[in-house]
Task: structure prediction
Amino acid sequence: MTRVLSGVVLAAATLAAILFLPAAGLRLVAAIVAAVAAFEYVALIGIDDARVRPAFVLLVGFTAWRLSSGGGLGVVPLTAMFIAGVAAVFMRRNSARQAILGAFAILYIGMPLGLLAMVNAVHGWRATLLLIATIAVSDSLQYYSGRAFGRHALAPAISPKKTIEGAVGGAIGGTVFMVLGGRLVFPEYPWPWLAMLGLVMVLLGILGDLFESRLKREANVKDSSSLIPGHGGVLDRIDAMLFVTPVYAIALGVIR
Result:
């Protein structure tokens, strides 16, 4: 019951933010979500330095805020932020691996959430909800298809409960949903184009989920945090979307 209630509250809050917040408000929400997810992420990769973690939270939040403005971040500032992130971790006597993975949060978390707000600003709430709903439909069908027909593990070393049959069910369901929903939101696009985009989105979503599962397995934790009752952390809720959003934004011409 706790999981259901928190899921309803989370869905309602997300819908309200997309439908009713002004552009600046949605940018702020994207930056805050990015910062919280970054805080969880650096904990997963083993960075517990009290000085380094806030620095990465600010860098990732700023990336989401800047990108969501529609002005772009720029190659030079992004490169400088990445190098600064690596240096901040490395100079505090963390490992080189932690330094690279920590700086990767700028690309992994900050950029996708900034682009999500940018999609909303350019194409409106329908395009944003189409992205989120496609991922949600795919995730749900992966779960139910896996429970009903799952026999072969997809990636047993990373996520033992995921099955090939579940992935196929999610891929089919997510692609069909993208075609049907896409024809309503983007009638100018032909259905084969929407089908291809939907399939790519679903596959990237599965990869995003497996990527975060690998992080949690290496950290020996079940969830990225306990912030959302019954659902884990923010990163647990957006892991698929982080991989999907950049491709969706490129496909819609938001970034070139």
Q: What stands out?
A: The longest strand covers residues 159-163. The longest helix spans residues 191-219. The CA atoms of residues 152 and 163 lie 5 Å apart.
